[in-house]
Amino acid sequence: MSIDADQMKAGSQRLRVTISDVSEALGLTKSTVSRALNGYADISESTRLRVRRAADKMGYRPLSHAQAIRTGRTKSLGLVIQMADHDAQRPFLAEFLSGLSQGASEEGWTLTIAASDSPETTFETFRTMIADRKADGFILPRTMSDDPRVKLLRASGIPFVLFGRCEDPAGCAWYDVLGEDAMQDAVRHLVALGHRRIGFINGGMQYTYGHLRREGFLTAMAEAGLKIEPEHMRENAVTIRDGEGRAHEILGSSPAPTAIVCAVDMAALGVYRAAAARGLQIGRDLSVISYDGIQDGAHVTPQLTTYSVDYTHSGRRLSALLIRRVMGEPVETLRETAQARFLNRGSTGPPA
Amino acid sequence: MSIDADQMKAGSQRLRVTISDVSEALGLTKSTVSRALNGYADISESTRLRVRRAADKMGYRPLSHAQAIRTGRTKSLGLVIQMADHDAQRPFLAEFLSGLSQGASEEGWTLTIAASDSPETTFETFRTMIADRKADGFILPRTMSDDPRVKLLRASGIPFVLFGRCEDPAGCAWYDVLGEDAMQDAVRHLVALGHRRIGFINGGMQYTYGHLRREGFLTAMAEAGLKIEPEHMRENAVTIRDGEGRAHEILGSSPAPTAIVCAVDMAALGVYRAAAARGLQIGRDLSVISYDGIQDGAHVTPQLTTYSVDYTHSGRRLSALLIRRVMGEPVETLRETAQARFLNRGSTGPPA
DNA sequence: TTCCTTGCCGAAACCGGTTTCGTACCCAAG
DNA sequence: CTTGGGTACGAAACCGGTTTCGGCAAGGAA
User: Fold this and answer.
1) Which of A18, A300, B73, B93 matches a 20 to 30 Å C-alpha distance to B291?
2) pLDDT tens, residue by residue, A36-47
3) What is the DSSP letter of A310?
């Protein structure tokens, strides 16, 4: 048994087939094999095919860190998770990571992650990851209006891709879901139901999405000819507690709105609480439409009507875009947006 | 501006100080510098110091992937997240990752993660990560009773560390929180309050923790001379929905228990719902003690009394242990356990 | 036929480290 | 004064790839 283990270990070590093994088996040199596999023009099509087939048959897989020493590319994507955002991103972190990982591994890349406890250490984390070449590029979730991470990476010349858009698009590739369209649609939906007094609880205004969703809300309100009541507008609500507090403030005004649009689901769950505390029944006395599509929204009564974002898909697209960015594609061709999916559940109805 | 960027880029490229830069600056050879920095015995103390200081002053940082090609070690820890566990692990995934990342980066290592959608692809994911040397070792969360991951890694001779214990300890290092002690303590707490009929809703029995927590519960019940009612025992509840269903089953029996111990917080939140549906007030009509310490437990009324696990610390310890394992320490010295912290909040009281 | 391309591949340097091996030097013992 | 054994370092191979450069042979133009 110990012998078996040793043999197995020695075997798997010795059995790892290197580029030299392939070249010797074919009577070619390493350089030819390398260039054949990497699609250089000075290799004949027949040789390229011969090499490709032999490599596959022999099970040759280049070691990415061996390539890295010459190419400078590790084939790994970096993600720095900010602990401060935990509460806000907890609901979809798993899906997001899964998507990123899928997108990376589909191309044979990996995902390297680091966590930082505070905004200050975030910077340091990026610095060391960059200095040590831990990643060829970075995914930046939760784009901020004046994002220090963007500045740092731009200055360092390190590729990156945003989850969210950015005012100054220089050097920025991104993927984003059009929250402003969802907010517009939400208002239209409520207006169609007959609502005239609609409140808005926005998310974090340090993020770009805060301004975009605000615009979307305001646009649709103006479009419907509805007046904006400052009493019905709140922002920076990203947790249940935040949402609960803002909802109480809004519902305490008079006349109170008959519907509230929330920029994030967590805040909407807070609205549920405030409503319960005030004896208001969601969907009948107060309509709520939100955004994100977190799991918990399906576990409250009535189920939360929301615009659902596919975070797995978002992650996958972000990885794909970042890889193309690292490989040299210009940022202009690496900007994608998508629409959130409307989940029309039970939290809306005609005004009481 | 483009010139600045070029200079900066060229600068940072050229400025990266290699081992040769250090050796030339000192009038030594690469090999001497390398051995000095790596603590070889055939380097004089004075030289070692001189090298160490020069390297620090020059800001020399070895490239881990350059070292890897010779040493075989990437200095990276692997984690494969199973999508199937998402719902169960969602509440603490962020903290856990953060801890793992901290523990790794404290030693200059990194965390490489991959996600797998199904149990089948999990295996494949491990295989490719191993084959491509993406990680020097793996962290295995959610240890199962007959864990296929353990078999694979054992057979491959790849280091790993478990989050959770394991029946067959051969080759297994681990970190675990003693859930069985918490379950015992929970029962004692309830007994001290006067409860005689205590139910138990266990978590997933495919995991080792399921059996351990069951033992803990049974031990304390026997110790208190209380009878085990099969009607009051349920298992495999890891989501709110699960817990809700199990609670209804248990509470539908007669006589129903006056208290329920849950192996996981998510299930306990389900108990809250079932209780609400039945007009039972938690803490007065029904006592609940649970385990995990998830955030949501502080957001229900009354707050959930639970045994809180520090997932950040767990992650940090796991990384530290795995690194030592990769560096060659025998598994016997790499087994740590800790106690969960009792959060005595509002969900218990004397029996009605 | 000669010269010049062009296509295709080999030889060797290179990337940034680590590790093996050889050896000069110093000191003590014979 | 030679000899033997450490000590401390240099030289060079090595890890697994990539990339530059040069050259040979075939083919076309002069």
Assistant:
1) A300
2) 999 999 999 999
3) -
Residues of chain B with CATH 3.40.50.2300: 76-177+311-338, 179-308
Q: For position A4, what pLDDT does the model report?
A: 34
The reply to whether the CB atom of residue A69 sits less than 7 A from any atom in nucleic acid chain D is yes
Largest CA distance in chain B: 86
Which amino acid belongs to residue B275? A
The token pair that represents B170 in the structure block: 């051969």
Phi-psi category of residue A194: left, alpha or beta, with phi > 0 → left and psi -120 to 50 → alpha:
left
| Backbone angles phi and psi of A339, in degrees to 5 | -105, 145
Confidence label for B352 from pLDDT (cuts 50, 70 and 90)? confident
Bin A233: left if φ > 0, else alpha if -120 < ψ < 50, else beta: beta
Q: State which amino acid sits at residue B335.
A: R
Nearest to B81 among A74, A97, A155 (CB): A97
Topology annotation, domain A179-308: Rossmann fold (3.40.50)
Q: Does B249 have pLDDT greater than 50? A: yes
CATH of domain A2-62: 1.10.260.40
pLDDT in tens, B22-65: 999 999 999 999 999 999 999 999 999 999 999 999 999 999 99
Query: Which nucleotide does the CA of B47 lie closest to, via C1'?
Result: D8
H-helix or E-strand spanning residue B71: helix B64-71
- The pLDDT assigned to B11 comes to 38
For A82, name the nearest residue in chain B, comparing CA atoms only.
B98
How are strands ordered across the β-sheet holding A160-163? Answer: A335-338, A173-177, A160-163, A137-140, A76-82, A110-116, B110-116, B76-82, B137-140, B160-163, B173-177, B335-338
pLDDT bin (cut points 50, 70, 90) of residue B88 is low
Mutate to test the interface with A, among B93, B98, B106, B303 (most CBs of A within 10 A): B98
Are B69 and A64 an interchain contact pair (Cβ–Cβ within 8 Å)? Answer: no
Average pLDDT, chain B: 93
Q: Which two tokens stand for residue B49?
A: 């110091």
- CATH code for the structural domain at B76-177+311-338: 3.40.50.2300
Considering only CB atoms, which chain B residues are within 8 Å of A81? 94, 97-98, 101
pLDDT computed for residue B174 by the predictor: 98
Sheet holding B233-234, edge to edge: B233-234, B198-201, B259-262, B287-292, B305-308, B341-343
Q: Residues in chain A with pLDDT < 70? A: 1-15, 85-89
